[in-house]
Write a sequence for this structure.
C-alpha cells in the first residue's frame, strides 16, 4: 500500500510560496468535519513583507503595455480553465453542491477573461481631453494607485476574491489580499495558478489568516494606498479609522448586504476606476 | 623585510581563516531576536554610524548640499540623531564643508583614484592632499589590489604609509575591496597589511560599493576578527567600516550583532564602526518612525522617490 502524500498549503507572496513567518497554522476541516490541511496563519509581519513584495513588483507591472497585461490575465484564465476539476474540489471542501462549486469556477474564469479584455480599453474611456478657456491642451490620464489591500468575502471564496483582485491589477496596481477565513483553500490553489500564469511575482500576493489580527494593519499601513474590503460593521470602523490616519482610499462592501457576485453588476469599468487615480495635465499651446 | 616574503608567509604568520566556520557563525547573527528597546537602541546607534554617501558622476553641489542637510537632520523628529559623516568625491568636499564645518557631522572623501586605484602614486597622493586642504576630516583610500594579487605586499603597505602621511590629521580609511581579493585568507592578510601601519582610530573598510559584490557579514566578520587579533597582539584599536549593499535596517542590525559579539561594546560607537551607505539611512529612519508610531510607513515618505510604489 502506498502512503498518501498530503499537501502543505502555502501562501503565494512575492512570486514564491511561503509559510507564515510566525510558523502558526490553523487546521482546516471539510464540511463533514474531517481534517483536510493546516492553513498558515499569517501575521502582520507577513503582511508587511507582502507589501514590500508588491512594492517591488508594482512599477514593472504598471509599466507594461496594456496589451501585454491583457495577455497575461487571459493566460491566468487558461490556467484556471485547465484545472477546473481541481478548483471545484477545493470549493467543495466548504460544502455545497458540486454544480454550485463548478458554477463558481466557471464564473471566475469568465470574470478573469472579462478584465483581460479591459486592459487596453479603460484608459480611453476614463481619460479625457478637456475643453479649457485658455491656450492650453488639457488632458486627463489614469494612473494606478499603487499597492491595494484586498479583504475577500467568506461566502464565495474564489469568485469573490477574483472579482476584487482583477479590477485592481487590470489598472496596473499590485495587491495584497487576505483570503476567505472560512474557506482559504481555493485562494491557496489560485496562488499556484498565478505562479504559472506569466503574472510577474509580487503583483498578486495572497495571505491566509485571522481577519481580526490583520485588519488593523491593513488599515494603518501607510504604504497601502487603498483597501477594498468585504467587512462587517466593526471591521469597517477599524478600516475607516486607520485609513483616515494613513490617508488611503477605502472601498467597503458591507457583509450584511446581500451581494450577487455572479451578476454583471459585480464587474466592469467602474470597478477598475475605483483603483485608479486621475492625473490632469495643462500643456501650453501656441505662442 | 618580513612582507617581501610574500602572501603565503604572511598568511602563515597571522593564521588562515576557517571559511566554513565563518559562514556558519555569521548565519547565526541573523537569527538573534532584537525587539523593542534593544531594536530602537540599535537603530539609533546605526544612524549615528552612517557615512551618508553619494559617489556618482552626476553629483552636483546642490545634491551634496541636500545630502548634508539630511545628514544633519535625517528626520523632523529631533530624537533621531545626525549621521557620523557624509562621504563624497574630492571635488565635492568644499561644497560639503560650507554646510558641515563646525557641526558634529564629519566630511569624508574618497581619494586615491577611487574606485580602481589605478593611477600613479604621485597623482593619488596629490588627490589626498587636495581633499584634506579643502576640508575633508576623513580620507577613504583604495589599496592597490593589482599589486596585492601580484604579491607585491611591501609596495601595497608602502603606499598606505604614503597616503597616511599625506592625510596629516585626517582619519584614514583603507578600502580593501574584498570582492577583488577572492578569498577570506586574502582579506585577513590585506587587513593585517593595512593595520600594521595605521594609527589607532584609523579604519579598514570592505568595499568601494562600485563592484558587483559588496560588504557581507562574512567578510565583515573576517575583518572584525583581524582587528581583534591585532588589538590583542599590539593594543592598537583599529576601526571598521563595511560599505556597499547594506540597504535595510535589519541588515544593519545584523552587522551590529557581529560587532557586539566579536569586539564588544568598545567598538559600538561611531569612532570605531561605520556604515558606508546611501539608502540605509532612509530605512533606519523609517523603522524608527514605525517603532515610535506603531504604524508601518511608506518608504517614499523618507526619500525623494516620486512613484506611487
Amino acid at each position: 500500500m502506498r502512503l498518501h502524500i498530503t499537501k502543505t498549503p502555502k501562501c503565494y507572496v512575492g512570486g514564491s510560496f511561503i509559510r507564515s513567518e510566525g510558523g502558526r497554522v490553523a487546521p482546516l476541516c471539510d464540511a463533514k468535519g474531517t481534517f483536510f490541511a493546516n492553513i498558515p496563519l499569517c501575521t502582520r509581519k507577513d503582511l508587511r513583507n507582502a507589501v514590500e513584495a508588491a512594492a517591488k513588483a508594482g512599477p514593472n507591472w504598471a509599466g507594461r503595455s496594456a496589451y501585454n497585461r491583457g495577455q497575461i490575465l487571459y493566460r491566468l484564465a487558461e490556467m484556471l480553465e485547465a484545472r477546473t476539476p481541481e478548483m471545484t474540489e477545493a470549493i467543495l471542501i466548504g460544502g455545497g453542491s458540486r454544480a454550485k462549486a463548478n458554477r463558481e469556477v466557471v464564473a471566475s474564469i469568465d470574470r478573469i477573461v472579462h478584465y483581460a479584455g479591459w486592459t487596453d480599453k479603460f484608459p480611453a474611456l476614463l481619460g479625457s481631453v478637456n475643453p479649457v478657456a485658455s491656450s492650453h491642451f488639457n488632458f486627463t490620464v489614469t494612473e494606478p494607485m499603487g499597492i491595494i489591500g484586498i479583504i475577500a468575502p467568506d461566502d464565495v471564496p474564489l469568485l469573490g476574491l477574483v472579482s476584487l483582485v482583477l479590477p485592481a491589477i487590470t489598472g496596473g496596481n499590485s495587491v495584497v489580499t487576505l483570503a476567505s477565513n472560512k474557506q482559504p483553500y481555493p485562494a491557496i490553489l489560485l496562488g499556484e495558478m498565478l505562479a504559472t500564469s506569466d503574472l510577474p511575482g509580487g503583483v498578486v500576493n495572497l495571505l491566509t489568516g485571522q481577519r481580526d489580527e490583520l485588519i488593523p494593519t491593513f488599515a494603518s499601513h501607510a504604504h497601502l494606498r487603498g483597501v477594498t474590503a468585504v467587512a462587517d460593521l466593526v471591521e469597517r470602523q477599524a478600516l475607516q479609522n486607520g485609513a483616515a490616519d494613513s490617508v488611503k482610499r477605502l472601498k467597503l462592501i458591507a457583509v450584511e448586504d446581500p451581494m450577487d457576485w455572479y451578476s454583471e453588476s459585480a464587474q466592469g469599468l467602474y470597478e477598475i476606476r475605483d483603483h485608479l487615480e486621475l492625473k490632469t495635465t495643462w500643456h501650453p499651446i501656441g505662442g | 623585510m618580513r612582507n617581501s616574503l610574500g602572501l603565503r608567509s604572511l598568511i602563515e604568520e597571522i593564521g588562515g581563516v576557517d571559511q566554513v566556520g565563518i559562514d556558519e557563525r555569521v548565519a547565526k547573527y541573523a537569527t538573534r531576536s532584537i525587539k523593542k528597546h534593544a531594536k530602537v537602541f540599535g537603530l539609533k546607534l546605526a544612524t549615528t554610524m552612517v557615512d551618508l554617501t553619494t559617489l556618482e558622476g552626476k553629483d552636483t553641489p546642490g545634491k551634496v548640499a541636500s545630502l548634508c542637510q539630511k545628514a544633519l537632520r535625517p528626520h523632523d523628529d529631533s530624537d533621531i540623531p545626525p549621521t557620523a559623516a557624509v562621504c563624497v568625491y574630492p571635488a565635492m568636499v568644499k561644497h560639503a564643508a560650507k554646510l558641515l564645518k563646525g557641526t558634529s557631522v564629519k566630511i569624508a572623501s574618497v581619494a586615491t583614484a577611487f574606485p580602481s586605484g589605478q593611477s600613479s602614486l604621485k597623482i593619488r597622493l596629490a588627490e589626498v592632499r587636495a581633499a584634506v586642504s579643502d576640508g575633508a576630516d576623513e580620507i577613504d583610500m583604495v589599496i592597490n589590489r593589482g599589486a596585492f594579487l601580484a604579491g607585491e605586499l611591501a609596495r601595497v603597505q608602502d603606499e598606505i604609509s604614503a597616503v597616511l602621511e599625506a592625510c596629516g590629521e585626517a582619519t584614514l580609511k583603507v578600502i580593501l575591496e574584498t570582492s577583488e581579493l577572492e578569498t577570506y585568507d586574502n582579506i585577513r592578510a590585506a587587513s593585517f597589511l593595512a593595520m600594521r601601519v595605521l594609527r589607532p582610530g584609523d579604519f579598514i573598510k570592505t568595499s568601494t560599493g562600485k563592484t558587483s559584490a559588496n560588504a557581507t557579514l562574512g567578510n565583515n566578520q573576517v575583518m572584525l576578527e583581524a582587528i581583534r587579533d591585532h588589538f590583542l597582539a599590539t593594543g592598537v584599536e583599529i576601526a571598521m567600516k563595511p560599505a556597499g549593499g547594506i540597504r535595510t535596517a535589519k541588515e544593519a542590525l545584523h552587522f551590529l550583532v557581529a560587532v557586539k559579539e566579536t569586539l564588544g561594546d568598545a567598538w559600538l560607537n561611531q569612532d570605531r564602526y561605520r556604515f558606508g551607505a546611501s539608502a540605509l539611512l532612509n530605512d533606519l529612519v523609517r523603522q524608527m518612525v514605525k517603532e515610535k508610531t506603531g504604524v508601518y510607513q511608506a518608504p517614499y515618505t523618507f526619500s525623494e522617490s516620486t512613484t506611487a510604489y
In short: The radius of gyration of chain B is 19 Å. Chain B touches chain A through ten residues (CB under 8 Å). The mean pLDDT of chain B is 93.
